[in-house]
Each structure stands twice: as structure tokens, then as C-alpha cells.
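Lab meeting, item 3. Inverse folding demo.
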């Protein structure tokens, strides 16, 4: 398993695929273990790196992961098969904003896809949380750019960082959820419904 993980890290580096930082996935894996998480939804599979690591915490974990990029989806399928987790990890090839889920709910929903769509993902998928379930979001520091928009020259990057900053405000001012922010890896948040606290 460790060898496969290293192979995936190398692949991500060579092919310029953004994968979660080690510190962040370690934090999430500890959270999964400590809270007995069994059903996970991941928005943004990439090559399956974070999904495989989350599922590896406990053999009873079932994970659904959504990816819209065909090349990454195919790579993710291959990696899931290589670690023999195809019976526990369901890889969906679709845009997460277009997926229709029915009759399912999750202990943990992990948002790590298109940064500009974070608020839409949150609003869509919050209905699929089990009581006491959490939504975890990655990349809230976005390589140190968040909070330093005035120092960015690229217009596109500035817009994207603006969207992440708006999402952070959305979480902070959300009447329905209590969110804690963690200075781990590239910045993480953990949101839980206030009624469930």
C-alpha cells in the first residue's frame, strides 16, 4: 500500500495533478478514526489518492468519489483496482453539480474539487449529511494566496482567490453550520450542523 501511495505521489508530480498535502490527509484520517466515520462522499477524486487513504483507515468504510475529468477518472479507477478497493470505493464520472444522489447519506463529505464552486457544492450536498456528520473542505489557504489578493497579478488567480475568500465568509456566517478552521497543510475547515452539536 505504502509503495502504491508513493507511486501515486510521483504520478501527481509528473503529471501536474493537484493532490492533498500529506499533513491534511493525515489530519482527516485521524478524524475518520476518532469519529468512527463509515460512509464518505468525496467531491473531486483526481487520481484517487485521498479517497484511497481515507478508505484505508477502516475496512468497513465505503466511499463514493466524483470526478469530471476523464483522464483522472480512468487513473483513479486503475489505482482503486490496484489496491483492491473496488468493492468499497465507487468512482463516479460526472460533474459533481449534476450528480443526482438518492436515498444515501454520509458521515463525512470531503470537498476538494473546483475551488470556484465550493459554496455550490456545500449547498447541494449538505442535505446528504447524516446527523452529526461533517463537511470537510481543503485548500482554504490556496498556497498562501488567500488573504493576500492585492499581491496577485494574474486576473484569473485573483478571481479564484476571491471566490475562496467568499466561501470562507459563507462558512463563518452560516447560521446552520458551526465551522472550525485548521491551519493544516493548505488550510482545512470542518463544518457540523449546529443542531448536531
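The presenter then showed the designed sequence:
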Amino acid at each position: 500500500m505504502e509503495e502504491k501511495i508513493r507511486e501515486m505521489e510521483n504520478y501527481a508530480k509528473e503529471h501536474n495533478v493537484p493532490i492533498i498535502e500529506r499533513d491534511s490527509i493525515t489530519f482527516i484520517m485521524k478524524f475518520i478514526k476518532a469519529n468512527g466515520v463509515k460512509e464518505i462522499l468525496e467531491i473531486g477524486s483526481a487520481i484517487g489518492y485521498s479517497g484511497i487513504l481515507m478508505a484505508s483507515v477502516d475496512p468497513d468504510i465505503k466511499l463514493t468519489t466524483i470526478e469530471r475529468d476523464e483522464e483522472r477518472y480512468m487513473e483513479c479507477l486503475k489505482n482503486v483496482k490496484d489496491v483492491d478497493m473496488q468493492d468499497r470505493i465507487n468512482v463516479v464520472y460526472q460533474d459533481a453539480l449534476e450528480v443526482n444522489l438518492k436515498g444515501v447519506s454520509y458521515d463525512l463529505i470531503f470537498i476538494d474539487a473546483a475551488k470556484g464552486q465550493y459554496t455550490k457544492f456545500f449547498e447541494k450536498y449538505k442535505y446528504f449529511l447524516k446527523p452529526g456528520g461533517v463537511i470537510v473542505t481543503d485548500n482554504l489557504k490556496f498556497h498562501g494566496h488567500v488573504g493576500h489578493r492585492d499581491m496577485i497579478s494574474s486576473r484569473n488567480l485573483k478571481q479564484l482567490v476571491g471566490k475562496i475568500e467568499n466561501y470562507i465568509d459563507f462558512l463563518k456566517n452560516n447560521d446552520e453550520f458551526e465551522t472550525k478552521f485548521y491551519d493544516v497543510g493548505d488550510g482545512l475547515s470542518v463544518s457540523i450542523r449546529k443542531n448536531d452539536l
